[in-house]
Amino acid sequence: MAVVTSHGTEIYYEAWGEGTETLIFAHGMGGNAAIWYHQIAAFSPRYRTIAFDHRYFGRSGCAVEDFRPALFADDLLAIMEAENIATAVLICQSMGGWTGSQMVLRHPERVRGLVMSHTPGVFYHPNVVNDPAAVADLVSQPRGQFGSAALAHDFPGKNPPGAVLYSMISSFNNIDPAVIPRAIGQAGLGVNTETLTDYATPTLFVTGDLDVLFPAEYIASLAATLPGARCVNLGAVGHSSYFETPSAFNDTLAAFLEEIASG
After folding, report:
1. Domains in the chain: boundaries
2. pTM: predicted TM-score of the whole model, two decimal places
3. Rounded to whole angstroms, how far apart are CA atoms 214 and 258?
4. Which DSSP state fits 125?
């Protein structure tokens, strides 16, 4: 357990394991560092593994006005500097995609590989559109006691303890959910993939057929516009495949890490 100060906010993170490769996990709006427990258990025996709480989330508490997505990459860089990490593979879920994609565009030499899990991050293409107003509406809709737009609609019925656990981990965040999409939308961070002709970081997009926030077709189409990127569809899974189907997600991540190592 450790904290590092970035732009006046204490960013909380935890580190496990050892290895020549470092993996850093960036959570989404429904999570915090604790949400990655499946991946920490699977990968820390072989890799140096770090998970952190984004500013305003979990143990990285700050005033709502200090929730500034434009600072996400600086926060991540502060962790890397504090831990003497030269390069890392970034695994980014939903909102965390804004962290990883900003990092790779600002500091490509520090990113060995990028996993964009159910997220476009800052990437966009004028011919590939996902309606942000519709996403905000879906997030605000009631889904039962333990349902969430971040999970497949049938997940609470298939895995009741998992749905309860997701809800409990989310409750660690003392946040106003309406602030997040609004702040991201107002930040003006979008980068047209048409301008990224020299993009060279190994990048994997992960999606699922039951993701209502960033539909599979949208993610696959966007991935096709980013040089060298590819997309894996994990099938009948919602917005949080790392949590809903961790074995399939971890197998996909492990294969990507092997590609990076052999490349």
Report:
1. 2-262
2. 0.95
3. 27
4. B
